[in-house]
Fold:
Amino acid sequence: MPTYVFLVFYKLDYLSPEDEEKARRQWEDIMEEWPAEVRFVGVFDHAWGTEYNGFIMMEGESMDAYVKFWKWFRDKIRWYVKETKTVIAVKR
Structure:
């Protein structure tokens, strides 16, 4: 079975200092609830060469697990992430 790699590029909306704190707390909660089927590799800031603020890298063995994860994740961050673009690859 292949290992899929997911790069999710993101653009952030403007956040007030209060909203930044709310997003930071929410991210901690997300990390505690992160499903095991989609492995978190890291968050990378400053995606130079793109119009995005950064990207999140994840791995998984199942596209179905990722699709299920993405709906859960998107619903939690959509209030401050104004755009995403996902690149999916297969690991050699």
User: Anything to note?
Assistant: The chain is about 35% helix and 35% strand. The radius of gyration is 13 Å. The longest strand covers residues 81-90. Residues 17-33 form the longest helix (17 residues).
